From TrEMBL:
Residues 98-156 form a coiled coil. The keyword Coiled coil applies. Keywords: Coiled coil. The keyword Coiled coil applies. This is Uncharacterized protein.
């Protein structure tokens, strides 16, 4: 990987520089190499590789190798700062999204609590209505039983009335028939009947009442 490649490059150049007596120039590269290993940083390993390349090139050209190293470090710091700024922007965005999400969560939680309260009230009302319905059903059952008993009593009374009425009608018919016979009998006007007119009229009067 990039980390192993950078460290290998440093070791390779170190051998070349040691033979040339450029140990002072290599101190910074070796420090960066050790730092890369310690922190397992690919970026530091790449910087160490660039530093060793710059040291190697300056050993032939005579340029100020430390100026090049400072430039490499400055470039790396700038890159890290840019990445940090990008990360900070991303973090700020994530924090904002998280805050909005938490706010929405709180709003939803409040809404759920309100709905739960309403559901509890509706459940209590439903239980009350069920009790009232049960009471009404019981009352209706009692009324139905009472109505059935009253209907039975009326039917019995009607049956008794019908029977009694038939007897009365039969009795009236007999009385009317008797009146007819008596009226016809006393209407003949013979002497035998005349003696009994007073008694006959009394009987007829009783029958006509």
């Amino acid at each position: 990987d990039d980390l192993s490649y950078g460290l290998n490059q440093v070791s390779f150049v170190q051998t070349g520089i040691t033979t040339r007596g450029g140990l002072r120039q290599f101190e910074a590269a070796r420090f960066m190499r050790d730092l890369a290993r310690k922190h397992h940083s690919t970026q530091l390993a790449q910087l160490a590789a660039r530093m060793t390349s710059a040291i190697r090139a300056s050993s032939h050209s005579g340029d100020d190798v430390f100026a090049k190293i400072k430039g490499l470090i400055s470039d790396m710091v700038e890159k890290i700062e840019q990445e940090a700024a990008a990360d900070a922007t991303k973090k700020a965005f994530c924090d904002k999204e998280l805050a909005e999400s938490n706010q929405k969560k709180d709003e939803k939680t409040t809404e759920i609590e309100k709905l739960s309260t309403q559901i509890d009230k509706m459940s209590a009302r439903s239980a009350t209505l069920k009790e009232e319905v049960a009471a009404l059903q019981t009352a209706l059952g009692e009324l139905s039983t009472s109505q059935a008993e009253m209907d039975k009593l009326r039917a019995e009374e009607k049956e008794q009335y019908t029977k009694n009425n038939a007897d009365v009608e039969q009795g009236l018919y007999g009385i009317k028939l008797a009146l007819k016979v008596l009226n016809e009998y006393y209407a003949k006007g013979d002497k035998a009947h005349a003696a009994n007119d007073g008694g006959g009229e009394g009987i007829i009067g009783l029958l006509e009442v």
